[in-house]
Amino acid sequence: MSELIPLPQTLIPFLEPYFPNESNTNHPKKPFVTLTYAQSLDSRISAKPGTQTKLSHLETKTMTHYIRTRHDAILVGIGTILADDPKLNCRYPETKSQPRPVIIDPNAKWKYQDSTLRKICAEGKGLAPFIIVDESAGIDSESHNCVLEQGGKYVSLPLIGNTSNWAIILDSLRQLGIKSVMIEGGARVINDLLDFNKFSEKPIIDSIIITIAPVYLGIEGVQVSPSSRVDITDVKWWQGEQDSVLCGRPLQ
Ligand SMILES: NC(=O)C1=CN([C@@H]2O[C@H](COP(=O)(O)OP(=O)(O)OC[C@H]3O[C@@H](n4cnc5c(N)ncnc54)[C@H](O)[C@@H]3O)[C@@H](O)[C@H]2O)C=CC1
Ligand SMILES: Nc1nc(O)c(N)c(N[C@@H]2O[C@H](COP(=O)(O)O)[C@@H](O)[C@H]2O)n1
């Protein structure tokens, strides 16, 4: 039985203008980037570091899976992997192709062989990950074999100490054939990308789709907050049964 529910009819047309399509995925050096996550009213994405907090209502969780159907890849940082042990597949009904999980793990900390993602992939319910590591990282041989056997790969890039490594990461994904990527988190990844003006003249993010849940998580929560102001343009709001969804684009 599916854990998801049918999407309200108004939601797909609401999201559509913010999705990758044939005309906005032609950049030679980067995929189309959608930043999407769920936050509390006090801009927290989990109640405590290192833990997972369910914020989305079933309706907006289903929306997240629909958004996954519309991207070639889903990207998260190693903090999210270690906290959530996520599936990172698409469970939306009648999904034709699965997105590629991409994990930023500079020090190759992830023991892939013990992960839920490995099980999901072994059951044919998702793709094996592309794991982005620093060039200096020592990769555990068991993890390496497991990733390769399932059709994933480790990609070594100059990450550590490199302030413009997002441009390198996104270029590398584009060269691997990924034309669109949905970036889900966690906080370090989101804050970095919103701080684009530190390493890029233009925003790296093309669209943002944020679920806002009616709860305060408090000061111990993991906060999304870039180091300086970011204006959002082309803003639209959708009101669901419990959550609100904001779509927009960072102002250039
Ligand atoms: N509510 C939501 O929608 C979501 C919530 N979360 C939550 O976020 C929390 C995890 O967030 P964080 O701890 O901030 O971890 P994170 O997932 O942002 O990973 C941060 C780590 O990834 C690596 N990394 C990321 N980008 C890098 C780069 N450009 N260069 C080099 N290394 C890079 C570094 O090792 C860094 O310490 C968890 O509690 C998780 O449950 C995560 C995703 C979505
Ligand atoms: N949209 C959304 N709402 C929440 O309440 C969340 N906690 C998250 N977390 C993200 O979803 C990943 C879990 O995905 P699977 O269901 O295991 O595929 C998690 O790792 C976060 O990226 N998202």
The largest β sheet comes out as:
9 strands, mixed
Unreliable residue runs? none
Shape: globular
Tally of helical runs: 7
Instruction: Return the string of H and E elements.
Output: HEEHEHEHEHEHEHEEEE
CATH domain class: Alpha Beta
- Radius of gyration over C-alpha positions, nearest whole angstrom: 17 Å
CATH architecture: 3-Layer(aba) Sandwich
The strand count comes to: 11
CATH structural fold name: Dihydrofolate Reductase, subunit A
SS strand fraction: 15-25%
User: Which kinds of small molecule does this entry bind, naming each only once?
Assistant: 1,4-dihydronicotinamide adenine dinucleotide, ligand LIKH6CAM
Number of domains: 1
Supply the CATH superfamily name.
Dihydrofolate Reductase, subunit A
**Which range best describes the helical content: under 10%, 10-25%, 25-40%, 40-55%, 55-70% or over 70%?**
10-25%
How confident is the prediction overall: mean pLDDT?
96
Q: Assign the structural class, choosing from mainly alpha, mainly beta, alpha/beta, alpha+beta, or little secondary structure.
A: alpha/beta
Describe the structure.
The protein is of the alpha/beta class and 252 residues long. The protein has a single domain (11-15, 29-250), classed as 3-Layer(aba) Sandwich (Dihydrofolate Reductase, subunit A). It is built from seven helices and eleven strands. Strands 6-5-4-3-7-1-8-11-10 form a nine-stranded mixed sheet, with helices on both faces. Strands 2-9 form a two-stranded antiparallel ribbon. Strand 4, helix 4 (116-122) and strand 5 (130-134) form a beta-alpha-beta unit. The model has no long low-confidence stretch (mean pLDDT 96).
